[in-house]
């Protein structure tokens, strides 16, 4: 029979590892939340800005009445330095989040559409 104290100690040590703890938090969200068909998550260069193709797609969808029921979630780590943040934060259907937060895990695991300029974190799993 395994030593319970050793198992707990090993778990605590792993949870202090940033990569492992992010994997655990994402896995919890992945199992807990269902896909929301009306949510789009945008991420450009790991949350460094609102740029590139994700931003062009965002502007098109936001201004198209056919997609007025969609919620647009932007991953933006530093909103203070972003020229578009103060304009778009006023929209009811636009939300801003930071990478590797509980909100990020929630939307990454529940948004129906994921629009990205590079890759998602290594712990990301696509829902079927």
Automatic annotation (TrEMBL):
EC number, UniProt record: 2.7.8.12, 6.2.1.22
Organism: Tetragenococcus muriaticus PMC-11-5
GO cellular component, one term: membrane
Protein name: Teichoic acid biosynthesis protein
InterPro entries given in the database record: Glycerophosphate_synth, TagF_N
Transmembrane segments: none
Pfam hit, one: Glyphos_transf
GO molecular function (one): ATP binding
Record keywords: Ligase, Transferase
Keyword Transferase part of the UniProt annotation: yes
Keyword Transferase appears in the UniProt entry: yes
